[in-house]
Amino acid sequence: MDHLTHPNNVTEFILLGLTQNPQLQKILFIVFLFIFLFTVLANLLITITISLSPTLSAPMYFFLTCLSFVDAFYTSVTTPKMIIDLLYQRRTISLGGCLTQLFVEHLLGGSEIILLIVMAYDRYVAICKPLHYVSIMRPGLCRLLVMVAWIGGVVHATVQILFMVNLPFCGPNVIDHFMCDLFPLLKLACRDTYRLGMIVAANSGAMCLLIFSMLLTSYIVILSSLKSHGSEGQRKALSTCGAHVIVVVLFFVPCIFTYMRPVVTYPVDKLVTVFFAILTPMFNPIIYTVRNTEVKNAMRSLLKKRVA
Known about the structure:
Strand order of the largest sheet: 2-1-3
Helix content: over 70%
Largest sheet: 3 strands, mixed
Oligomer: single chain
Radius of gyration: 21 Å
Strand content: under 5%
Number of helices: 11
Distance between the termini: 71 Å
C-alpha cells in the first residue's frame, strides 16, 4: 500500500557536494587529489613492504597489511567521485550507484572495525601472554580472523542495504552531501523512517560505541599489565599500542557522532565524513610507520634494493 501511495519515481540524486563556491572547488580539487593519491600509494607501500620483508612476518604485520588494503579501497569508494564532482556545478549519482556506494562503504567500514578488534586482541596476547603468543596466534587462526572480518563486513553492509533498497523515493532528490549515506537517504524517503532510523542507529552507532568502549577497555588492561615488563619492553609496547589507540579514536569518534542519533542531518556532517572516510585512511599509514621502527627499516631496505 505504501508503494501505491508513494511511487518510486526517483532514478538519480543531485549531490550538493562540499561547497558551491567555484574558486574553493578548484582549491579543494587539488587538495583532495593529493590526499587521495598519497593515501592509496602510502597504503599500497605498506602492503608491498610487509609482503616482501621477511623480518615483518609477525601476525601484527599481517593484520596491518589487511588494514592498509582495506583503507586503500575504502578511500577509493567516495573520494574519486567527490574529486571529479568538484570540477562540475551539477553533480548527480544514479539510485543504483548510490546504493552500491552505500553497500561497499559499509562493507569496508564494517570489515575495518572488526580488523581493529582483531589487532587489539593480537596486542593483548603479545603483551599479556607472551609465552603463549606463537601457539595462540597461529597463521591459520590469523587467516580465519581476517576472513571473519570480511564476512562481518558483508553481513553489516547487507543488513544496511536491505533496509534502504525498498524505500520509496518520490522527490525531492537533492542530497546535501558529497556522497550517499544512510541518514541523507532516509531523510528523502517518502514515508516515516523514524523506526528504521532507530534500527540504523542501533546497527551502526550503538555498535560503534560498544566496540569503541571495549577496545579502550582492552588497551587499558594491556597498558596496566606493562608494569611487569622491562623498560625496553614497556617502550616498545607503548609505541605499538599508542599507534593502535590513535587509529581507533580517529575512526570511532566520528563514526559514533555520525550514526549514534535519530534521523537528522547537520551541516557539519560533511566535514565529519571527510575526516573518517578520507583523512583517517591517510593518517593510518603515517601513524603506523612513524611509530614503528621495524616498518621504517624495512621500507629503507626495500628502497635501497630497488635503487641498487
